[in-house]
Amino acid sequence: MPRLAPKELKLEAKEREHLEKLINRHTTEQQIALRAKIVLLADEGENNRETARKLKISRKMASQWRERWIAGQKSEIEITERIKDAERSGAPAKFKPEQILKLFKLACDDPKNYERPISHWTGRELAEELVTGQWEVYGWQRR
Questions:
Q1: What is the pTM of this model?
Q2: What is one Pfam family matched by this protein (predicted)?
Q3: What are the C-alpha distances in Å from 1 to residues 4, 10?
């Protein structure tokens, strides 16, 4: 059974220009530049196998970025957003940014400022200090 040809990808002049600029810019991440090259080769009529061979990537990767680009064109997503990594699923963050900042501030402070008889913070000492501070806050809120 013959393989199906990949979906045709046609770039507008503005899209092509933007992708070429991304590739030529020295500050562009290599992954982004590679994805831009995949899209440009697809626009030139290369199939996924030829694109994969030229860029030394898998056919699956060439196909994936061709499909994502086409889907992005239909939904009119911004050009750079089309070739960025997709949001990943996973557990929500355990700590709020404010809590992380508080931890860093505490870790940079001298333990003696918190009446701790140590010269350097340990993970356990930091946790104890943060939990103590948290309960003190709850106590103040009740007054």
A1: 0.61
A2: HTH_28
A3: 9, 27
Rounded CA separation 111/97 (Å):
22
Is the distance from CB of 111 to CB of 121 less than 8 angstroms? yes
Half-sphere exposure of 143 (CA within 13 A, CB side): 6
pLDDT one-digit tens code per residue, 103-126: 889 889 999 998 889 999 888 888
Structure tokens at 23: 């590739």
Residue with tokens 């831009």: 36
Could you list the beta-strand ranges (E) of the chain: none
Domain residue spans in the chain? 13-82, 97-138
pLDDT at residue 136 in the model: 53
